[in-house]
Write a structure and sequence with these properties.
The structure is a homodimer.
Chain A lengths: L16 H17 L5 H5 L8 H13 L3 E2 L8 E2 L1 H9 L8 H13 L4 H16 L2 E6 L7 E10 L2 E8 L4 E7 L6 H15 L16 H14 L1 H4 L4 E5 L2 H6 L3 H12 L1 H13 L4 E3 L11 E10 L2 E11 L4 H24 L2
Antiparallel strand pairs in A: 1-2, 3-7, 3-10, 4-5, 5-6, 8-9, 9-10
The structure holds a DNA duplex.
DNA sequence: CGTTGGCACTCGGTAGAATTGACTGCTAAC
DNA sequence: GTTAGCAGTCAATTCTACCGAGTGCCAACG
């Protein structure tokens, strides 16, 4: 970090205390009112002890350095993405309101059920807390091993392969055979599949029988259909809560359309969240994530871990003009609770 | 195709040929332009052979009888819900464009995979074809019987109950035991569960062992957690495609918000579709379905059957000002293809 | 020197008046 | 019964004037 030697020029990454205070005031005010904010309303802020005139001259500096922008000549200032970035980076981590804290505790004290259900509920919790659209991503089971495989006869030529993974995931695949399969064959195939696959991961290569009898064919079909799973999607699950909030939080119908269009593409949402996490960020503002249609959005993410391994993430999506402090606190607290929840489940049990 | 037995309005439910032609012209024009349509543009329609003045006098009659409405005194006419209803009831079933027909054929020639995946893809197909939001509902497995139950050890105190139903559905439930369970116990419980549950439906009462040993407890827990499934949701699956179309097709942001809010509540969507089907309708216009927030929408539904049993439905949701002919044709064709697809799967296999 | 009050200026937003034009309903003639 | 013509209505548009929020600049002040 460069020191604050010159107060002019060169966008050093640090602002002197007064500029920082003013920037913060502008952000807070603008988030509240959605309006450009002028020098006098900044000066009336309790933390700012100088006159509007001084504020004005500081503001031209902030604008020159790219932290603020002016919609038009005789309007107040609006924070730029860079301005928000500074604000967020220098935010002392907020604390949740006690009511919200209670809401979260209450929620995690009572959730039950399958992982998927918990994640979905969590997503709803997050939107209810923040009024922003939330995204919860559950990690795929690419690294987990097969616990059990079972072949079930739907009818003579139609079987269902049910695979259980060590992370509790269950996937099914239907298999159509070109010949009638007897229950005995199915049972035998099931037995062989178990012997073959238990303990392996999906990308492990296994030795399939090369014979041409019914059972061997079934086994081969089952293995291939199961391994075909891999490339499609890595099995990540995405739960999006409160898409309708998008329409409440953005004003332009076209923005709403663009954002919803993105949210519909779940794979894209996964990579968005993944990208942000990979960049080590907890917030991506405006164009930082590189998804153009979301350039008027900010995305907050917080990782969820199981046994210190990344196991997903929770996220919030709002306008760049969003209540970062509250939203970040919510995301963080919920992600921690979620992490603890899954750890707790392991431990109990 | 026309149904609607109730005819007890002050005016007869049938219009003379000229009024019908004029109404149709108004609907077509309004659907195209989204603007109130005036007498002269109606008169210039090829099917209308009278002068604007005559059209005007017919229009006052149509307005008196509730088929048209005037936004304000010096504006053209707009169809009312009743007007759309008449239009739809007297629509000769449209034919799909050849390009679209090809698209559908192509699609159903190549879809593969699990029922859920097919339904989801179908939903995307429908939105792509029509540019409206689509809803595909897959029937729940409340009537199907248990084909197989399996208990899998996640760890000593943590089991997973995997149940396969005759319709190919697979559901899982985790079970936490208050004691360590040996693999032998799990296998035995699994065996007992199979004996107990195979062939039953979810609402059947079964005789559970009353002993207090580990295996019996496991069995009891498993049965109760499985039967607890029932009340929550009947297992219907809903696939909604193109929610973002909502933002394209409606103009008011508040309408968008309301409609999205409804779409988020999947249970509500299921009952909406169910209600409309129960009323025997294929289209619900405006307030006909009784869901107030959707009063500016029209919903088109077409049933999907398996073995002549209702097995779900496909639907399209758009503004009352929607292209009924095309949309209805699309819904119908797709539902038929879907019905045939599932029938075909049974047959092959 | 930095800070401040004062002042002229800019420009978006709004309110009202005038205008337009797309309709209508009515009526009298065909 | 149909039509042409005409007067009337009213939303939408345009224009104008004006207001006021907010700026940049500057001179004065500690």
């Amino acid at each position: 970090m460069a020191r604050r030697a010159t107060k002019e020029h060169s966008s050093t990454d640090d602002l002197d205390a007064r500029k920082a205070t003013i920037l913060e005031a502008v952000v807070n005010e603008h988030v509240d009112t959605a309006q450009p904010v002028g020098s006098s309303s900044v000066a009336s802020n309790a933390d700012v002890v100088v006159s509007p005139a001084t504020v004005r001259s500081e503001m031209v500096a902030l604008e020159r350095d790219g932290y603020l922008a002016q919609p038009h000549t005789s309007a107040g200032r609006v924070p730029t993405d860079k301005g928000y970035r500074y604000f967020v980076d220098h935010l002392k981590s907020g604390v949740l309101g006690s009511a919200q804290q209670r809401q979260v505790n209450e929620f995690f004290a009572h959730v039950r059920g399958e992982v998927e259900d918990v994640l979905e509920q969590t997503s709803l919790l997050l939107t209810k807390m923040t009024s922003y659209t939330s995204v919860v991503v559950g990690a795929g089971h690419s690294t987990s091993t097969v616990l059990s495989v079972q072949l079930v006869n739907l009818d003579a030529r139609h079987q269902l392969l049910v695979t259980v993974f060590s992370d509790g995931a269950v996937v099914k695949h239907s298999i159509m055979s070109g010949f009638d399969v007897s229950p005995v064959d199915v049972a035998e195939a099931s037995r062989q599949l178990n012997a073959l696959l238990i303990g392996t991961t999906l990308d492990a290569r296994v030795q399939v029988p090369s014979r041409t009898d019914h059972v061997a064919t079934l086994v081969r079909d089952a293995v291939s259909v199961l391994h075909a799973e891999q490339p499609t999607a890595e099995g990540e699950q995405v739960f999006i809560g409160g898409s309708s909030k998008v329409a409440e939080v953005f004003d332009g119908v076209d923005t709403v359309r663009k954002v919803l269009g993105i949210l519909e593409q779940e794979l894209l949402v996964v990579s968005l969240v993944q990208d942000i996490l990979n960049q080590g960020l907890s917030v991506a503002i405006g164009a930082e994530h590189g998804y153009e249609p979301l350039s008027s959005c900010a995305v907050i993410v917080a990782p969820v871990t199981i046994d210190n391994m990344p196991a997903g993430a929770v996220g919030l999506l709002g306008p760049t003009r969003m209540k970062y402090r509250e939203a970040m606190a919510a995301a963080q607290v919920v992600s921690q609770h979620l992490t603890r929840h899954f750890a707790g489940e392991e431990e109990r049990g």
